[in-house]
Amino acid sequence: MKISAFLLTGNGQSLEKKTKMTVQRRVASILLLCFLGGLISCASSPRENDVLARAVQFKERGKAPADIAGLREKSLPLSDYKIGPEDLLEIEVFQVGEMKTLARVSARGDIRVPLAGRIKASGMTVAGLEADISERLRTYIADPLVSVFIREYRSQRITVIGEIKEPHTYMAAGQKFLLDIISEAGGLTDQASSICYVQRGIGDGEEKEIYLIDLNELLLNGRTELNIPLESGDVVHIPRAGVFFVDGAVESPGYFKIENRTTLTQALSMAKGLKYEASRNRVRVYREKGGGEREVLEADYDSILKGEVPDLEIEDRDIIIVSKNGMKEFIKGLTSTLNLGILSVGKNY
To answer: Average pLDDT, stretch 91-114?
Structure first.
């Protein structure tokens, strides 16, 4: 529909001609304003260096996850509870009632058993202690059948540290598993990583072992074998999750947690995706190299989606900035201004 036909209401040809000239002037003014607005918009938009500086300043308020030396991933077999100091043991020998006894493990880890003498019980499993006592009693009893029952658990000290609501050293009664102690400590904080470390053999002269547990696999995928039994002296460490920052032409810029293996496309998806004016072939990742230096990695978002290039894995403290395409931004501003201008013309006439 022609604007002149829409505006002509019966006042004659002169009104139509006048109206055409007025509309042309208005459209020209709108285009000029749009152009100037686009220039102003481009000039006032934050530069990458400014965004980067703002991201780094905000990020440095937090703390990076602690590094644990000697970390190794391994499967953990279920094991029996290991007896420790101050545990109270009930010991019986089948069909030899007078051999029944209660023995509390000393601070040095010893117990005394009639006929068997002093036995080092600390660090042994129930089955191991039964076998040891049986072997010692063979001199006095033919084929002794020994049973050991733990009446009181006093030795289990399990420490929980890191991103847990109530970090503390807990006195655990009975056999405790990983989820038991996490629950007792109040659960994870919002900043917790999905990876948990269990450190074993610390301070008792044993070789230190560090087990890696994926809590998502345990809780979400039901891998109950990862709910490992804990031993006295274990330290459960829940580190702070790795974080990355997204800014620029995305719908929801900000900080996000790294969940296991987070790729660039997943990171941008967490930021609600790219805006229309985003430069899809110019996504930059600023990565710390140490010593105050950073490397810049450039990625083509569409090429990654097409499978032409591999997806980039995001690391802790990465800063992702999506540049704006100047032409797309101008077109978007032009479209918006034209829509507003036409509505204005319609109101005046």
So the answer is: 91
